[in-house]
Amino acid sequence: RSIIQLFDVSKQYGAGYALKNITLSVKVGDLVFITGASGAGKSTLLNLLYLATPVTRGQIIVGGMNLARLSPEKIPYLRRRIGVIFQDFKLISHRSVFDNISLVLEAAGQPPAVIKKKVEEVLERTGMTEYMNALPPSLSGGQQQKVAVARAVVGDPDIILADEPTGSLDACSAEVITRYLMEYKEKGTTILIASHNTALINSTGFDVLYTLEAGQLAQPGENICAAMNP
Ligand code: ADP
Ligand code: ADP
User: Fold this and answer.
1) ipTM of the shown complex
2) Burial letters for 66-87: b for 16+ Cβ neighbours within 10 Å, e otherwise?
3) Which residue ranges does the record assign to the ABC transporter domain (predicted)?
4) What is the mean predicted confidence (pLDDT) over 28-34?
5) Pairing relation of β-strands 31-35 and 190-194?
6) Which of 19, 35, 43 to mutate to test the pocket of ligand 2 (most atoms within 8 A of CB)?
């Protein structure tokens, strides 16, 4: 069963193609890596999936929703099912760490007691409890990235989109955060990670690996290691 499908998707910025003729599908619960050089189109691919930007051509289906036909008032329903870890974090600088995370649950209409419990849990798991009242600009890049991860998972999304999710973390924190994300995979969450970090790719394993080359898809790689060590 597919949760994400792209049919002949192209994205143009001006005259140039960021993505060209991409067709792929992602199965429910899969961990998918998207790799490729800087500028290959990895971020653009993730951006299209939660309608940060529209496609130029082609069709995208996410969780049964045809994104081209999604009316503006339905976009929040799409985004509530997706947790995004942005490469530049995109935290709200004048709101506390706690508020940055709780906003996700408030938007989903969760009651205050549930919000408090869930936010405290993700803060604890990412090691950010002591910073819950801090404003993001006062934190290091690694700390901000942990908040971004906490915000992405707090709503128990069906899909997590992660752009270099450990790019600002030291090796130890990267391992803690990667293991945390893998717990969501165990629970059935579909995860797409854009990364050119081969250490990360090797440490988590994957179900499918896509390589982008100048906006085009190279042959998908099956996970040979998992097939050999079931
Ligand atoms: P990657 O994530 O693999 O580094 P990107 O998806 O960020 O690649 O970029 C792919 C190409 O699209 C690059 O040439 C980049 O400059 C271009 N691009 C991405 N976003 C925009 C944008 N908002 N406006 C114009 N060009 C863009
Ligand atoms: P990466 O390529 O590693 O994903 P970038 O720094 O290229 O990261 O992109 C960061 C943001 O800037 C993204 O939101 C992307 O859409 C935008 N962007 C990238 N390239 C361009 C560009 N040439 N013009 C305008 N915006 C861009």
Assistant:
1) 0.76
2) ebeeeeeeeeeebbebbbbbbb
3) 4-230
4) 97
5) parallel
6) 43
Ligand 1 closest atom vs CA 215: 10
pLDDT tens digits for range 68-114 = 999 999 999 999 999 999 999 999 999 999 999 999 999 999 999 99
- The amino acid that residue 83 corresponds to is G
Q: Are 9 and 48 in contact (CB under 8 A)?
A: yes
Binding site membership of 38 for ligand 2 (Cβ less than 6 Å) = yes
Cα(174)–Cα(168) distance, integer angstroms: 8
pLDDT of res. 225: 46
Token pair 């939660």 is found at 50
Q: Residue 229: pLDDT band by 50, 70, 90 thresholds?
A: very low
Three-state SS letters, the chain: CEEEEEEEEEEEECCEEEEEEEEEEEECCCEEEEECCCCCCHHHHHHHHCCCCCCCEEEEEECCEEHHHCCHHHHHHHHHCEEEECCCCCCCCCCCHHHHHHHHHHHCCCCHHHHHHHHHHHHHHCCCHHHCCCCHHHCCHHHHHHHHHHHHHCCCCCEEEEECCCCCCCHHHHHHHHHHHHHHHHCCCEEEEECCCHHHHHHHCCCEEEEEECCEECCCEECHHHHHCC
Sign of CA dihedral 117, 125, 151, 10: negative
pLDDT per residue over 137-152, tens digit each? 999 999 999 999 999 9
Residue 100: phi and psi, rounded to 5, are -55, -40
